[in-house]
Amino acid sequence: MTTFTTKIDEIKVIPTDAKFGLKEVVFIVSFTVTGVDGQFKNSVSRGIGLGAPDPANFTPLDQITNEQMLSFVNGALAPDDMRVIQNEINEAIEQQKNPQAQPFVIPWNK
Description:
- This protein is of the alpha+beta class.
- It has two helices and three strands.
- It has helices at 66-76, 81-97, and strands at residues 3-16, 23-37, 40-49.
- The protein has a three-stranded antiparallel beta sheet.
- The N and C termini lie far apart (50 Å).
């Protein structure tokens, strides 16, 4: 059974949001989901836009925790996006577990 973890890789920040006047607004998050099944491991990296900030629930950048950032990512993903990423990881792990013979080219000199 695969265990999945998500890590925030980087964020893109708007210095000042013109519409609301908020400072240092996170608008894109790059993240990596890693799956581990015993000795087998694979990762998939993605980026997601967070959309417009909510002034009533805005958290300043220097106060955002890792858990909040992960929550922002999960909230921005479409319902099936994480499942698609996890399926991609599981398929790659299955290929590691059961490698297929790869075709190769041999010059024909006869």
